[in-house]
From TrEMBL:
One of its GO terms (molecular function) is ATP binding. It comes from Microbaculum marinum. InterPro entries: AAA+_ATPase, ABC_carbohydrate_import_ATPase, ABC_transporter-like_ATP-bd, P-loop_NTPase. It comes from the Bacteria. Keywords: ATP-binding, Nucleotide-binding. Residues 4-243 form the ABC transporter domain. This is ATP-binding cassette domain-containing protein. Pfam families: ABC_tran.
Length: 246
């Protein structure tokens, strides 16, 4: 069963054609690298998958069933989560509270309901252990490395039992050691059968963890290749237009 299939997706903003007739598929446990220059259509495509935009034309299938998203909540109910580049974390709160942000666990205290911090800490610790991350539930996010912050954001997607995780430039502006942490997190999602779409400009990272690479240029798909069947040089040529199609 295919986790995600997009057939002939187009998105127009007035006279601007952000995407033209783009098709792609994603299998459970597959990591797909989505590459392209600025303005290639990567963000538009991801926002369509995440339910932020409705396509102008085309069809989306989730688990081989035709699906229409009316908003991000629809996408989340179909098992799609997105980790944005800025991560949307609250620095002054703990890792556990950030994992549960907007979905806090509570317990009754007489006529009142109070936050159940011990339960959130326990569940967050389980999620970090599943991801093989050393992130600690009670640590404040402001004291964390870039890799640990990514672990918090990814743990939040696991809370909703996502089957597809979209990651927007997760290794941008972090150290080499932290990049290794994030790539390990992606491999762990893959091991658990979760499909990942990795949007990145970092060629070594894409080649390190992906099974397949899709290249967009000016809103059209110019390549869809198994990672082992291509090279950084070919992908660079496809991104820049030095190579038309592959």
């Amino acid at each position: 069963m295919t986790a995600l299939r997009m057939k002939a997706i187009s998105k127009h903003f007035g006279a601007i054609h952000a995407l033209d007739d783009v098709s792609l598929s994603l299998e459970p446990g597959e990591v797909l690298g989505l590459m392209g220059d600025n303005g290639a259509g990567k963000s538009t495509l991801v926002k369509i998958i995440a339910g932020n935009f409705r396509p102008s034309h085309g069809t989306i299938f989730i688990n081989d069933r035709e699906t229409v998203f009316h908003g991000p909540l629809d996408a989340r109910e179909h098992g799609i989560e997105i980790v944005y580049q800025d991560l949307a974390l609250c620095d002054n709160l703990t890792a556990a509270v950030n994992v549960f942000l907007g979905r806090e666990l509570t317990r009754s205290f007489g006529p009142f309901r109070i936050m159940d911090y011990p339960a959130m800490n326990r569940r967050a610790a389980e999620l970090f252990a599943e991801l093989k991350s050393e992130t600690r539930p009670k640590d404040k996010v402001k004291s964390m490395s870039g890799g640990q912050r990514q672990a918090v954001a990814i743990a939040r997607t696991r809370l909703s039992d996502a089957s597809i995780v979209l990651m927007d430039e997760p290794t941008a502006a972090i150290s080499v050691r932290q990049v290794a942490e994030v790539l390990n997190l992606i491999n762990e999602l893959k091991r658990q059968g979760i499909a990942v779409i990795l949007i990145s400009h970092r060629m070594p990272d894409v080649f390190a963890v992906t099974d397949r690479i899709v290249v967009l240029r000016r809103g059209t798909k110019v390549a869809d290749k198994r990672t082992e069947a291509t090279s950084p040089e070919e992908i660079t040529g496809l991104i820049t237009g030095a190579i038309e199609h592959a």
